[in-house]
Amino acid sequence: MQPILEFKNVSMAYHSMDGEIPAVSNISFEVSEGEFVAIVGPSGCGKSTILNLISGLLKPESGEILIKDSLIQDTTLPIGYMLQKDHLFEWRSVYRNILLGLEIKKRLEPEPLEKVERLITDYGLKEFKQVKPSQLSGGMRQRAALIRTLALEPELLLLDEPFSALDYQTRLNVSDDIYNIIKKENKTAVLVTHDISEAISIADRVIVLTRSPASIKKTIPIQLNITDRTPMKSRNAPEFKNLFNEIWKELNQYG
Known about the structure:
- There is one protein chain.
- The protein is an alpha/beta fold.
- The protein contains 9 helices and 10 strands.
- The strands form 2 sheets. A 6-stranded mixed β-sheet has the order 6-7-8-3-9-10, sandwiched between helices.
- Helix 5 (about 140-150) packs parallel to helix 6 (about 170-185) and helix 7 (about 195-200) crosses helix 9.
- The radius of gyration is 18 Å and the shape is globular.
């Protein structure tokens, strides 16, 4: 399967008046089309920096980042970025929040608008189109944020701890929602999370990072003996506990 994303020996440091702070060091990995990859690592190790490099918000000091064989700075393929907070504007209705990206891109045309209508209907927000975001549950707000991102038809989705602001029960339900939407829409996704269980339950592979500056310590394929996989079902798989212990051990070793 063709890689949609390639990291090739990427390093980057932050610079300030006090000196240089290395953030990521010599990182190489690939993500194939349709794959869901999770990245875990110690707090402050550089996980979000990797997403910012993929999105083009930061530039590597060495190495290359390719999206479908084009350097990240040259690609025209859209990349969606879903943050920890939904960033829905209270003065706009849910529908107008979902249209925001299309509005900014000047793409309020029949075809994208029809897709938005389908997404809103398919994922349970049709009757809430005209309400304000404060009238939605936390899970529904995240669903609206994802639909807003999908409306721009991104080739690659970046998810930066998108469930971290939710309570535990809502978090479990929303991770199921988001996983099912991403898989149904056949999107490729890279998730950053500090939650080992979340990473195992949702990903096809988990990349474990070292302490800062981040480098790849281990890549662990997630193979679960279940049918019709969802994040909730994954947590009951017989392999889940051993995978959790393996990743926990890697994260709690020095290096």
